Amino acid sequence: MSNSNESNTQEIIKKTAREVFFQKGLDGARMQDIADKAGINKALLHYYFRSKEKLFEIILDEEKQNFMRYLEDIITSQDITFFEKIEKIVEKQIDNMINAPHLPHFIMNEIIKRPELLNQVIGNSGFKRVFEVFVKQTSAEVKKGTIRNIKGEQLMMNIMCMDTYPFIAKPYFMNLMGIESEAEYIKVMQKRKKEVVEFIITAIKL
Amino acid sequence: MSNSNESNTQEIIKKTAREVFFQKGLDGARMQDIADKAGINKALLHYYFRSKEKLFEIILDEEKQNFMRYLEDIITSQDITFFEKIEKIVEKQIDNMINAPHLPHFIMNEIIKRPELLNQVIGNSGFKRVFEVFVKQTSAEVKKGTIRNIKGEQLMMNIMCMDTYPFIAKPYFMNLMGIESEAEYIKVMQKRKKEVVEFIITAIKL
DNA sequence: GTCTATACAGAGATAGAC
DNA sequence: GTCTATCTCTGTATAGAC
Fold this sequence. Notes:
Chain A is an all-alpha fold and 206 residues long. Chain A has 2 domains: 8-59, Homeodomain-like (Arc Repressor Mutant, subunit A); 66-204, Tetracycline Repressor, domain 2. In chain A, 78% of the residues lie in helices and 0% in strands. At the A-B interface, helix 1, helix 7, helix 8, helix 9 and helix 10 of A face helix 1, helix 7, helix 8, helix 9 and helix 10 of B. The structure holds a DNA duplex (18 and 18 nucleotides).
């Protein structure tokens, strides 16, 4: 609260906890592990954040904000074409995944374990409304004859699939493609942006 | 072993454990919970499967067999066209996901937590070799002029993305699309097969 | 604010009766 | 093979000194 950097220790804890929770999930994470990695002791974790649950909730709250919400600006934008929108969506989504590669898996993981989280995650994001806008826009384009007959739901699903899954299955694809380092995989994903856009546009353009 | 149905109780335990592990992961699962759902007590779990770890390993071993391996027949098949292969891959993959919707998330989950599992999962599957065959086939098609210039790695990635991610993010998409029941979602996925095939073919065909 | 020591609870595993 | 009772360990959480 008193702000002015929110106390250094507190930030270090959150940063560390985020990493551990991302990799191990709520159940797999150990307070001891977080403490060790943060260079402090367990008691201090509880001093700053009453309990493991509480700490987790805070991380989740912060992270879920980053999950999908950024699409609103692009989709509701008036002054770019439908194709340009798709291009921007793909680029933005892949960029976001590069910055927070564990996020989608982390979110899905906790939703599967505790389905009641779903409303919390999606509900507040307002993305549902934006999604419906996109569906309508797609229908409009079909009517205009700029794209072939396709449902917006399917199209958005395809976009999200191709942007997101390569990060969820990252270790799998890395192995398959013989890629050794994270850095190299990121490069491949950077280049992939163009490919995905081209793939999608070609699939729908008339 | 003595076979003849592998003892009923043992099978019930495995079936139950699979469900619980799928939903909660190794760490989140509780032996008490498995016992309750299976209608027996904890001690019996340990009687049949020494430990939680052991039980988990057995489930994982069985399930990983189902993960991707089935693609080999299709890809190495000689008497169908490249486009027919894609059609069959998509159909087969989505069918498999319908039958075991939690599998990909489950596998990825454990790989992220214990990266050493990766070799075990991919290594034995032989899918890596099959993947390379597909990459070569794609190049050949490009050269033949039947499809536009695209790398096999990207194409296969796109296929796997579109087949798999809708099941990982199932609760998310269900909410987004206003779908209430699992059964209805499966119907949507059944219909989706055709859509995905069309999407991919349109995206690459010359 | 940060530490050490410790209480407490939960979950995996075992002993032993039937 | 199946059960109840119990042991043991691990991990969260707290008390209290500095």
